[in-house]
Amino acid sequence: MPIAISIGGIILIQVSGHLAAGSSNLELLDMAIMVLLVMSFCIISLINQRNLLDRILIAIDWFIIPILIGRIVGTILYESLPAPFTVNPTKGDQIEWILPWTILEILLILSIIIIAWIETKKLEKKREPTTNNSLRALAIVFISTGPAGFLALILVIYHTIKNQQTVEFGLVMPTILLSMVSLSNWIDSLKGIIDELTLILGGILLILCILTVPFKKEAWTMTLVTDSHLLLYSGLLLTGAFTTLYLPIVLISLSTTVWIIGIMQLRRILRILGLFDLIIAILASLMILGAKMLEPTTLLISLIVLAVELGLVAWLSLSNEDEIVKD
Predict the structure, then answer these.
(1) Residue 262 to residue 301: CA distance in whole angstroms
(2) CA–CA distances in Å: residue 167 to residues 105, 180, 187, 227, 299
(3) What is the DSSP code string of 72-105?
(4) How many CB atoms lie within 10 A of CB 257?
(5) Relative orientation angle of helices 176-184 and 147-162, to the nearest 10 degrees
(6) Model pLDDT, residue 178
């Protein structure tokens, strides 16, 4: 409790200091001192303690979470601290700007390496894997300038796949794009491709969702369906493709895939979702594309695609009629 109060006090001092008149969110030497003090208190909390595999994770949480809370509060209060995903750690004063972000990033990377080591030790001791690594990685993404967040997500994705933690995987997969946004602040080549990467990643997850049928990985289906919906819809909006003919193509593909998987795996929710996607595809195409969709050639192609989807769905439904009725 004394250490927790001390950490809270340090965060409060740092945030309140930047609320004072004349303070700047570009002069962050105090953040470097704050980060080092918080890490020191976390290390002190581990002295003469048993069950270090669990206590180290708690100490890392007490390092990451208070810094995250302080950063968010500072951003909300007159942007007295830099907002997440907006920091370029390479441009600014060497002492007041570059040094604090470098120290924070190094400590975050060390924390991630320790977390990965702990997960390995838990598996060696045949203990249950940690179940909140996705939330920890998300917190790191919010306070990192890019590298630490990206590393955290890669390691968490690896462990979630290895340990069959489908929900954890679903939480961290879309946040890869947030880490890319942070990196794009100081890597200019990333700025023009993040929108396209969103659409591509959504397509990859949809393909992986299809593969859950032949490989009998039903446990992953709902996670992949959810993430593919989120990324494909976001990708259409970010890239501006929702005003082109890519809109009906992507939405019809999504609808057909989800609907067929719902039939093959006997999941009512997926069949309903596939129908819902089809209705959105038709309405969105007519409302957004308007005259383009009513052109004879485009309309003919659209009706053929719609007929193929409905015919395929009807055929599979009849082939699995007995099982679907039971479902």
Answers:
(1) 25
(2) 27, 22, 31, 11, 40
(3) HHHHHTTT-SPPTT---TTSS-IIIIIHHHHHHH
(4) 21
(5) 160
(6) 92
Reported as a single tens digit per residue, the pLDDT across 248-293 is 888 888 999 998 999 888 888 999 999 999 898 888 877 876 766 6
With tokens 């890597």, the residue in question is 187
**Dihedral (CA of 224, 225, 230, 236) sign:** positive
Name residues whose C-beta falls within 8 Å of residue 232's C-beta, 6 or more positions apart in sequence.
Answer: 199, 202, 203, 206, 250, 254
Q: Which of 158, 171, 70, 85 is nearest to 115 (CA)?
A: 158
- CA–CA gap between residue 138 and residue 282 (Å, rounded): 36
**Residue whose pair of structure tokens reads 């005003």 in the numeric block:** 243
Is pLDDT larger for residue 300 or for residue 72?
72
Provide DSSP, 32-68.
HHHHHHHHHHHHHTTTT-S-HHHHHHHHHHHHHHHHH
